[in-house]
Amino acid sequence: MNSPFNQTSMADNVDQEPVVTRKRPKPGERRVQILQVLAEMLENPKGERVTTAALAARLDVSEAALYRHFASKAQMFEGLISFIEQTIFGLINQITEREESGDRQAQEILMVLLRFGEKNPGMTRVLLGDALWLEDDRLQDRIAQIFERVEASLKQSLRIAQTQGRLPQSADGNEVGARATMMLSYVIGRWHRYARSGFKKVPTELSELPMRVLFSV
Fold it and tell me: At residue 136, what are phi and psi to the nearest 5 degrees?
């Protein structure tokens, strides 16, 4: 899988004689490299917990070297969560700015979430929380906040759809909340299925019928 992180390319030194020295990456580049490798290790279909010792070995550095760039393992996971937030909500903002139809906004938001999980299996494990097992509790809190923000975005789009007459309004006023909860549950369910299958059953597989049901009037 292509890394989701931006990397600074480094031109190889070219000379007539073989170059035996290795260029030391800059601090910012090393941080990106650590997060990139952590994300790749989380793609293990067996779902094994990633330790700092295993991460350091994969990077061919000492554990102490990792902690020169991140104060703790929790801070490394916070870096991944920040990437998730920036990516998902950046795309959601683009959708809401571009698309006027409220129900179409919600549909595109759901597809963004499904595709994000499909393209970033390691990040899917973070979103589902299993990669954060035995880690700092505040990481789970940040994931919960992501879901709350996503649900709020869905509600806003569904309210727009109601004002446009594209979705019904229930007598008790709970239509928007119920639909948004159901939609988010559908996405999380698809992510779980993806992870349990060893990342073989992709989230976007056979999504057309569920989408019609979710947006039925």
Answer: -60, 135
Domain count, the chain: 1
Does residue 210 fall inside a structural domain? yes
Domain span holding position 166: 73-214
Q: Is the pTM of this model over 0.90?
A: no
pLDDT band at 24 (very low <50, low <70, confident <90, very high): low
Q: Which amino acid is at 49?
A: R
Look at residue 51 and tell me if it is in a domain. Answer: no
Confidence of residue 10 (pLDDT cuts 50, 70, 90): very low
Collapsing DSSP to helix, strand or coil, 45 comes out as: coil
Q: Which two tokens stand for residue 173?
A: 């006023």
Residue 90 belongs to domain with CATH number? 1.10.357.10
Q: Which residues contact 151 (CB under 8 A, 6 or more apart)?
A: 180, 181, 184
| 149 in any annotated domain | yes
CA-based nearest residue to 126, from 156, 159, 88: 88
Nearby residues of 101 by Cβ (< 8 Å), 6 or more positions away: 160, 161, 164, 166
**Alpha-carbon gap, residue 92 to 109, rounded angstroms:** 6
Q: Which among 111, 118, 122 has a CA at the least distance from the CA of 150?
A: 111
Copy the structure tokens of residue 33.
């490299």
Sequence-separated contacts (24+) of 63-69 with Cβ below 8 Å? 66/34, 69/27, 69/30, 69/31, 69/34
Per DSSP, the three-state class of 101 is coil
For residue 173, is it within any domain?
A: yes
